[in-house]
Amino acid sequence: MTNPKRVGILTSGGDCPGLNAAIRAVVNHATLTYGWELLGIPYATRGLLECKTIPLGVHSLDLRGIDPLLNMGGTILGTINHGNTLARADEILDGYRAIALDALIAIGGDGSLAILHELAKRGNWQLVAIPKTIDNDVALTERAIGFDTAINTVTDALNRLTFTAASHDRVMVVEVMGRKAGHLALHSGIAGGADVILIPEIPYSIQGVRQHIAELRDRWGRKFAIVVVAEGANHARESLQSSACGMGQYVADLIAECSPVDLEIRASVLGHIQRGGIPSAIDRLTAAAFAKAAVDLLAQGESGKMVAWRSGRVEAVRIRDVVECSPLSVDPNGTLVQTARALAIYVGD
Fold first, then answer.
1. What radius of gyration, in Å, describes the C-alpha atoms of the chain?
2. Do 266 and 7 contact (CB within 8 A), yes or no?
3. Percentage of the chain surpassing pLDDT 70?
4. Tens digit of each residue's pLDDT (9 = 90 or more) over 296-340
C-alpha cells in the first residue's frame, strides 16, 4: 500500500452519538497532518453504488467559526443498516473505482465491518475501520463509539421512571436495545438502580423475577420495582416465544399472570431514543483517539485493520479476527454480573 492522497470516509449500520466527532477528527488530522483530500461517502455502500461523494474540509461545516460536529448526534453522512449489500458487490466495486479512492475509513459495527471487509478483499481496497455500536458487541475492543452515551441515556430514563414507579407503587418493565447481547441492559441497569436485569446470556425464570419482586415488598417494604429487559432476552425457562409485542411488554404480561397479588405493571420501550442525543465526553474522546489512530494506520500503509481500545491505549487488530469473534456477549461470570448479584439485583437463576 502506498501513502493515500484521496481518502473516503463512511458511516454504516445504525446511527449513534459520536459519529460526527469521529468524522471531524479524521478530516482534521488527515488534512492538517498529511494534506489528504477527504471525501464523505453518503449512506455507506449506497454512496459507492451511486458514485456520490461529499467534499470534507477542516472548515467546510463551520457556522461563523463554530464547529458543530463535536457535539452533534447522528451522522452528517447518513447511514443504512438494511439490504443485501453483497448481492450488488460488483456494482459497489465499480463505484469505488469510479470515485478513484486510494483508501477508505469505515465507521461501523460488527455486521457492517464484515460486509466492508469482504468488499475490500474483493476490490483490493486499503481499508481501516473504527468501531461504533450502542450494543457494545464488537469484539477485541473495550470501547466502541456510542456505547457510553447510550448507557447515560438509559440510566437517565431509569432514574426518571423510578420516581413515577415509587409514586404509584408500580412495577416498571423497561425494554432496552442490544440485539443478542446484554451489555447495555447490564451496564445501565446497575447504574440506574434496577431491581431485575434480564439479558440473553443468562437463563432466567419469570417465577424467579416474581419472587424477587415479592421479597422487595414482603421483606423490605418496597412497593415498586424496576425491571430492565434486553430486547434479545427471550429464553426464559418458561420458553418465551416470539409475539407481536416486544420483550418488555411480554415479560410484563407474564409477571402479571403468575403473580398471586395484584401488581400494577407498566412496560416502557425506550427504542431509538437510545441512539440519539449529544455524545458524552467519553464518546467524544474515544472518537478522537480512534480517528487519529485510523488515519495514522493508513499513512503507514496498513489495511484490513480496526482500531481498538485495549488496556488503556489504542491498538490495531485485524478486521478478520474481529468479525470471527463478534458479536461479543456478556460473560455470565464476569465482574459486572457478580457486582449486580452482590447488590441484590436479580439477573437470572
1. 22
2. no
3. 95
4. 999 999 999 999 999 999 999 999 999 999 999 999 999 999 999
Distance of CA 118 to the CA centre of its chain: 22
135 among known catalytic residues: yes
CB 287 within 8 A of CB 279: yes
The answer to whether residues 171 and 265 touch, using CB atoms and an 8 Å cutoff, is: yes
- Whole-Å CA distances, 132 to 24, 146, 150: 15, 6, 12
pTM (two decimals): 0.94
Distance CA(253)–CA(272), nearest Å, equals 23
pLDDT of residue 240: 47
DSSP3 helix / strand / coil % (the chain, rounded to 5): 45, 15, 40
CB atoms within 10 A of CB 335: 8
Cα(235)–Cα(162) distance, rounded to whole angstroms?
26
Coil, strand, or helix at residue 236?
Answer: coil
Cα distances from 149 to residues 251, 282, 340, in angstroms, run: 26, 8, 21
Q: Which residues pair with 196 in a beta bridge?
A: 227, 346
pLDDT tens digits, one per residue of 23-80:
999 999 999 999 999 999 999 999 999 999 999 998 776 666 677 898 999 999 999 8
Residue type at position 296: D
CA separation for the pair 81, 294 (Å, rounded):
23
d(CA 138, CA 111): 9
The C-alpha cell that represents 282 in the structure block: 467519553
Q: Which of 62, 90, 110, 135 is catalytic?
A: 135
| Per-residue cell: 345 | 439485583
How long a stretch of residues is the chain?
A: 349
